[in-house]
Predict the structure.
Amino acid sequence: MTSKSLHGEIENRLVEHELRYTSARKSVVAALITSDGPLSASELHDEFGGSVPLSSIYRSLVVLEETGILAPHLGTKGLTRYELAEWLRGHHHHFVCIDCGAVEDVAVDDTHERSVDAMVNEISSRVAFTPINHALEIEGRCARCA
Amino acid sequence: MTSKSLHGEIENRLVEHELRYTSARKSVVAALITSDGPLSASELHDEFGGSVPLSSIYRSLVVLEETGILAPHLGTKGLTRYELAEWLRGHHHHFVCIDCGAVEDVAVDDTHERSVDAMVNEISSRVAFTPINHALEIEGRCARCA
DNA sequence: AGCTATAATGAGAATCGTTATCATTCAAGA
DNA sequence: TCTTGAATGATAACGATTCTCATTATAGCT
């Protein structure tokens, strides 16, 4: 999906909810389109050189999450990073550096993804739990911290 | 591994580091042995009916993590939950309820686990990243929230 | 058993990420 | 243009976590 069509999809989604695709929200989305992994509020704040106030960033994140445009990344100690939801970025997994905490996206090929899916379904069927999504986090050391 | 031998292993590990296996630390470990999923500082605090002050719990968690006895659970927004490290509890995965946030352990059979391992290794070999561990988080709704 | 050195504790202050408040600004539609 | 609700910026409030420091407890020595 091209960056322009992404913005279009997102604007549509917001308008459906009677919300506006304002510049703060666009900035957040644009940064996350470019980024190679999820970002936290303060990382975004730095990214913008402080031009967008933190309170606006937090509010944008809330709105974008509520409308299903962003998804929180389950894999961080102490802070919350966000990424584009799967319908916008496709399914993927993460590397998490145990030293610096950096998170990087990883693509998975279909063969492997199918086996993970099978596993998730099989496991869930054995217990009272309805699976909606899954996330494989690979913990290790990134190139910089190795 | 029996509960008693677990405590023994842990005490040894602490003594190697010239640290003591005090009652606060024992309480934390005991609670995590019993629990069916990772717990946060305040959940532990409640578990103990407030008898162990929060500051002690936090300090115990830090010490136990530094010595490799506990591992932080990567899968929670806003707070940190801990569980026994893998050498004490064995490898497993998690269900995370997207409504109430509860986390529950899930066992994985060898067949599936091997395919996940293969996938992790294969992926990591393609990028500059040294894998140390992995965590499969299954997000969904638990029985209570379904 | 008593001493001593140091680990560990308890209580509270301080910090950090995040959320809520409120007056002001902006933008879409009449 | 005017109106109305959405969005903003600044700041206060909040909850989770960490730090500080004076006090207590414990292992090792005599």
